[in-house]
Amino acid sequence: MFARNFTRRGTIAALAGGAAAFATQGRSAVAAPAAPAGLVVLTVGGLVGAPNRPPLEQKRDRLFYSNNIDFKEARAFSYGDLLQFSQVIVTSLDEAGIAHVYKGPLLHDVLATALPPVEAKTARLSALDGFAAELSLDTVYSERWVLALEADGNAFDLGGFGPIYLVRELPAGTRRTEEEEARWVFALYYIELLA
Fold it and tell me: What radius of gyration do the chain's Cα atoms show?
């Protein structure tokens, strides 16, 4: 009569699939953005119009939770997703006056993919070490901030400036001031869009 070799996991998956099919009945045929393929290195939360991941879950999202980050809507980007954007090259002097060449997508291009609503005015940028900085979205657009994935031809690594270092090009020959340095976020992993 009935096969007895089904598992709890298989039964739960079948029930979840049926519930998902039932939940989507009557909705528009517009597909949700695809979940990222590969290791997620950046999440954009808050005022996001095109989420591709579930809301924060305390047991799964422990780093977010331990850093008091919460979101209901978020867009996740894998390293490969970020490489699909046009890559911009920025040259800048470090504190010692040494020039470095950074490469990565424009921050505003990545944020645009998350479809922030018009009420979004600020981006709060969070680093793995708990550091956070804020930039107005007007500043993000006018100053051409870049999500650098590499410097001088070498990808950033965890424990250094990676996986992402938020940088921008300064006028030729200009060194970063302390105030400017505070806006450059290394080990960036989360951006919250705020009103």
Answer: 20
